[in-house]
Design a protein that fits this description.
By secondary structure, this protein is of the alpha+beta class. It has 10 helices and 7 strands. Strand 6 (291-304) and strand 7 (310-319) form a beta hairpin.
């Protein structure tokens, strides 16, 4: 093959490969990304900024716990002080003079101090911070459970809106057919122009319902896309129907109130917060006592004749600010009041959890009953619409009767769809309230 031909062949091959790669990447980008409700929850829990902030606060609380624990250990300190004077200092005794201090002096001190009586206050501070860290961990679980519930409910609402839109479009299609039939009968003189207008109005109402449902679906979709860190207008994501949430499985609820309270992270958070407040109040009480520390130090002094070069000591240091105008006392009383408030908050949280579980259970039972009733009603509505349609065509019923039966059928379909999704939402909320499933944990 000639050299020029080889170059032309190589260029053609490279161009073909690049074109194929570009087409392949375009096709791959065009393919929608399918996400299930489990994917949405997993991605959001891992990337949502509010949850990341809660985890960072919990990490900070644990670091403060370590900081408080370090204050229980001996304090080691090293200092060095170099001084250059304007002149040396000589001391005279008659005709004799002695150098008492050089022009340059240097003092090095290494000391250690161990709190003794102060350990009572410091140990309570450590316990208070440890309970605060536990409360922060429980707060992370609370935030995750709340986010999981909100995402699952929003996911269900999006598909509920999609279903409502489909029902409205189906109703619109049925009415469009009725418009065609009614127009023909108006031309034949069997019906009036008013009958035709009533059918067209009903068709427009169905179209309006579809628009409203579509708007709700777009809003829910935007919320979900934002929760997983994507643009709310991203059109490349396809959400899969939440079949796992629509299954009518019983929710396991603990039989005892103690088990219900133990399962909820909100109660644990309130309990740890109350314990931290109690330890803080005890710390304030011990803070009213004097500080007693054991001390030991080594010092080396250069440049001063009357000071020994090397010296060391051990001793006890006591300090007690016994009169500070009641500042420490009132701080201790305030800490006791805060502990009492935390106890009241804990009791409030316990009562709220029990009420929430009871109400969520009642809502789920009501939703299940609504599904059964709607399922029975829709069969009657379908039969009523079929019979009325036949009667209208036979001239035994009016267009108003047909529109009433069609409206009843549409409402029955909407009620059934709404009841099914409300049942799924009620189940998600009960699982969250009872902390009874793996999703809620």
């Amino acid at each position: 093959m000639p050299k020029g031909s080889r170059r032309g062949f190589s260029f053609a091959v490279v161009s073909s490969l690049l074109t194929a790669a570009l087409l392949g990447s375009t096709v791959s980008r065009a393919e929608p990304r399918r996400l299930t409700v489990e994917d949405v929850v997993r991605i959001s829990l891992a990337t949502y900024p509010r949850l990341a902030a809660a985890r960072s606060r919990a990490e900070a609380a644990h670091l403060l716990k370590k900081s408080a624990g370090g204050r229980l250990l001996p304090l080691l300190n090293a200092t060095e002080e170099f001084q250059h004077y304007d002149s040396a200092f000589d001391v005279g005794f008659g005709a004799q003079t002695f150098r008492a201090r050089d022009q340059d002096t240097n003092t090095v001190v290494v000391s250690a101090a161990q709190p003794v009586l102060g350990l009572l206050r410091r140990s309570e501070d450590y316990k208070a911070q440890a309970r605060t860290a536990d409360a922060a961990d429980a707060g992370v679980r609370v935030a995750e459970a709340n986010a999981r519930e909100a995402l699952e409910v929003e996911y269900l609402r999006m598909f509920e809106a999609n279903t409502m839109e489909q029902i409205a479009h189906a109703s619109e299609a049925e009415l469009a057919e009725e418009v065609t039939v009614t127009e023909a009968r108006v031309k034949a003189g069997a019906l009036t122009q008013a009958d035709l207008l009533r059918v067209k109005v009903a068709q427009a109402n169905a179209r309006q319902q579809a628009i409203a449902a579509r708007t709700q679906a777009i809003v829910s979709r935007a919320d979900l896309l934002s929760a997983i860190g994507l643009s709310p207008s991203d059109a490349e994501v396809e959400f899969v129907e939440p079949t796992s949430l629509l299954v009518s499985t019983p929710v396991k609820v603990a039989s005892s109130e103690a088990a219900l309270l133990e399962a909820r992270p909100e109660v644990e958070r309130a309990q740890r917060t109350a314990e931290a407040a109690r330890h803080q109040a005890r710390s304030r009480m011990f803070g009213l006592l004097p500080e007693v520390d054991l001390e030991a130090a080594y010092a080396r002094v250069d440049g001063q004749v009357f000071a020994p070069k090397d010296s060391a000591f051990v001793g006890v240091r006591a300090a007690w600010p016994f009169w500070e105008w009641g500042a420490s006392y009132h701080a201790q009383v305030a800490a006791v009041a805060e502990a009492e408030a935390a106890e009241h908050d804990l009791e409030t949280e316990r009562r709220q959890v029990l009420v929430e579980v009871t109400s969520r259970r009642a809502e789920l039972d009501a939703a299940a009953g609504a599904v059964e009733l709607a399922d029975e009603t829709i069969k009657s509505a379908e039969e009523a619409y079929r019979v009325t349609d036949v009667q209208v065509r036979a001239g035994a019923a009016t267009v108003t009767d047909l529109l009433d039966s069609q409206a009843a059928l549409t409402q029955a379909r909407l009620n059934l769809a709404r009841a099914r999704y409300q049942q799924a939402i009620a189940r998600v909320e009960l699982e969250r309230a009872a902390a009874s499933s793996e999703r809620s944990r």
